[in-house]
Amino acid sequence: TGNFVLARFPLNSGRTAADADRHLKERGIIVRRMAAYGLPDCLRITVGLEDEMRSVTDALAELLK
After folding, report:
1. In terms of DSSP H, where are the helices of the chain?
2. 3-state class of 35 per DSSP?
């Protein structure tokens, strides 16, 4: 089992991993960019408590809709 999710994002402007990272940070959610690991389109999101994960999914849904 793991304690994180590796999320891949599209390359469309406004919906990239960098855009998602910025959007999440604006909401106080810190994730890890994976570009240094050769995965520029991915973010590593640590699994937390249910309410914390709902905040992440709500924020990402807002960005990606």
Report:
1. 17-26, 50-64
2. helix
